[in-house]
Amino acid sequence: MSRTGREKQKAPIRSRLNLIALAQLAGLSLLLAFTFVADHRHGQKNIRELAEATAHTHAQKDSIYRDLFIASGGAYLTVSQKIVPELALAHRPDRDILTPAGRVITLVTPKNLFQIASDRLPNHQALKLKYALKTIHPLSQEDTPDRWEKGALRGLQQGRAEISEVVYEEGREVLRYMYPIQASWGCVENRPNTGLKIGDLLGGISVTVPMELYSQQDHTRNSLYLHFILWTLGASGIFWGFRTIKKRDAVIYGGRQALENSYEELEKTFDAIDGIITIQDSDMRITKANRATSETFNLREEELVGKYCYQLFRNINKPCEGCPAVKATKDGVLHLAEIEHKNLGKIFSVTIAPITNSSGETTKFVHYAKDITESRRQERQLRQAQKMEAIGTLAGGIAHDFNNILTAIIGFSELALLQHNLDGTIRKDIDQVHQAGLRAKELVKQILTFSRQGEQDLQPLNIQPVAREALKLLRASIPTTITFETDIANHGTLVIADPSQIHQVIMNLCTNAYHAMRDGGGILTVSLQPVELADMDVRHRQGIKPGPYLCLTIGDTGMGIEKEHQERIFEPYFTTKEKGEGTGLGLSLVHGIVSSMAGYISVHSEEGKGTTFQVYLPVISDTEVAAKGDGKCSGQIPSGSERILIVDDEETIIAMEGRMLEGLGYAVTAFSDAIKAKEAFVADPQFFDLLITDMNMPNLSGLDLVEAVKAVRPHIPIIISTGFSEQINNANAHRYGVQRVIMKPLVLHELAQAVRNALEE
């Protein structure tokens, strides 16, 4: 047969082979396109979560700044081109002051002071974040929300905790985020004619996070490079296999030329990828590695070749647990896994793409490892924040149920103690039950203090019990290598303070002292003593007057604070601790708390000898204590004869409250079903003089019952009794048409006083 005839015979075979090769190439392309899209979508989800975590963190930080500024009531700044007198404060005669030096200073509201401070924070500029305070009823053009912010504010008004959305603005993708802010006394004072009340939703902290900060380009580029390598390898295999069927001379000549070009291009692409890429044989022995692999392990390529994958990453003699290469060996398909390598201190996202021969056997692997340590760390921080929020919710639920139980214990024991014919021994036993119930009540309040930030409750306070309780908790968590020395004086000195914040001050300062001594041990000293400060003692302390103070001293024998750092320790986010050991907010919060209580804090430190913090809080006189009251009922318990409607889903609480109020002379109608109570009230709205209702009830909540009652009789006085509620308190009760909110467990004199006050209002 002639050469021309043989070529004609081979033509149909070549045509079929070309079609098969094209079909295999198309299948390979579709498979890799599917895995690339899946990986890209997963990366987008992670980026959205990281952007939301960043916005949430900055909003909470800015909320803390706002609280600190509001606690101080504003500040005076020198009038300049950027700082001008505020029109909103024109009604205040002390807005502008001429100093002895001839400078004009002006009062800056907490909002504007906060805005000035936030604008100067370098991290906002570095991250290119946009930040603003937007109010529902703006006072100025700067307060006016844009279209997105108006929608977000409507969402906050409907009760949502926070709002976030990814949108396109000015040709780029950004995350818009809104965090709620409530009106404080400073806001109400500076908006006298708006009807604003403390606790009202004032607006929100608006944060704009450019999505380019978490650009997926690196991940997408690396994934694209990997898939390109896989496609190139697969296409080369297909191309090479089918080329061998052609004429030997043509294959050798043409294939050699193509292989040289492909190999050179593949080498450049291989080394351009910043992720770790190795090619391994079926035993997981490295046959080729890219430049990033050499740089990560500080080894030349010839030193990497021949090592087992698990030997390189973990220095062990068997594959890592969950290794995707083992799975790929069995089924011959692509596998993904996330593996933590403790000796490197890193977490890798590992992709294994098997390379099979003509018989379908896996002969090699393409192993791609991407370092995702930082993204996983940020995810863990986000989960930790969510976990703490869940713990607070759980604690609130426990407090609600436990306070219902305590209401019955305390209430019925009080009723029993009112009986005059009790045997002396029985009276003592019941009194012990009553005292135990009161201690349990305080324990529940303490649980809520740890689980969430409550409102500031400034009151005449004896700090000694708070200090002892805090030290008891600390002693259980601090190693015995640190010795406690305490000197807490037993005296009746009172200060105006919030007990939960005093607890926070002691815990923060003692924790810092422990960190300074944890490596070598030492002595932690805590002292609480009354002192008298003279003129010379307070000469350099602005706003501090001479007189009696209570001094809390907390010292350690640790490493001390370097001199260049001592002036900055109270700055927010300034810390000398290692990464992950603290946020740098502890001492700034302590400083803010002490300042809000009209006190001051000083520090003395020597390197190598230790540090001592002294907190001075002004003592109040007996006259001031009498004026402010100690929160307890004095004199005779008030009584009355009005008709009271009681609603609570707990039968024991209804029975206890009914007996208490009937014993005080009131006529009581009680329901354990809120719907039936509503029907009874609607049937005769003028019959009742007061409604006392539980907050959390099945079928109809306390607030829903209040709304239904107010719709029929708008001015009836109402008391809500609850074991725990984040929705309503005495600060915002009037917003819901409620005169009083009383916390369970109920005590007779507190219930009697609340009822009398509500009726008389």
Describe the structure.
With 761 residues, the protein is of the alpha+beta class. The protein contains 22 helices and 24 strands. Among the domains are: 38-74 and 109-207, 2-Layer Sandwich (Beta-Lactamase); 453-628, Heat Shock Protein 90 (2-Layer Sandwich), CATH 3.30.565; 643-760, Rossmann fold. A 5-stranded antiparallel beta sheet has the order 9-8-12-11-10, sandwiched between helices. Strands 14-16-17-19-18 form a 5-stranded mixed beta sheet, with helices on one face. Helix 1 packs antiparallel against helix 6 (217-243), helix 6 (217-243) packs antiparallel against helix 7 and helix 12 crosses helix 19. The longest helix is centred in the first third of the chain and has 70 residues, at 3-72. The model is unreliable at 249-253, 450-455 and 629-634 (pLDDT under 50).
